[in-house]
Amino acid sequence: MITTLSHAAHLLPMINFPMINQEDGAMPGEGLTAVQTFLYFVATPIALFLVIGGLAWITSAPKKDKKEKHDVINSID
């Protein structure tokens, strides 16, 4: 019977943890701060989505005609 979590960890030596198994020659850099992580992975994608969505909305808005045109194809007199 497993009595502690550390005992269970020793029973499963074949689990590949990403922090343990790195490629040969890998030199990980410094970790990101919480603010950097938020900016890179939350704020920046949201800002890009809003900018691109706003540009698409502005460019696809219906155009206002200055003078009224008589359209023979779409109207019946």
How would you describe this structure to a colleague?
By secondary structure, this protein is mainly α. The chain is 43% helix and 0% strand. The chain is built from two helices and no strands. The chain has helices spanning 5-11, 34-59. The protein starts with a helix and ends in an 18-residue tail after the last helix.
Topology:
Elements: H1 5-11, H2 34-59
| Sheet with the most strands, sense and barrel status | none
Give the fraction of residues assigned to helices.
40-55%
* SSE string, helices as H and strands as E: HH
β-strand percent reads under 5%
Q: What is the number of strand segments?
A: 0
Unreliable spans are none
Shape: elongated
Helical stretch tally: 2
Give the overall pLDDT as a whole number.
79
- Give me the Rg, rounded: 30 Å
Structural class per helix/strand content? mainly alpha
**Alpha-carbon distance between the termini?**
89 Å
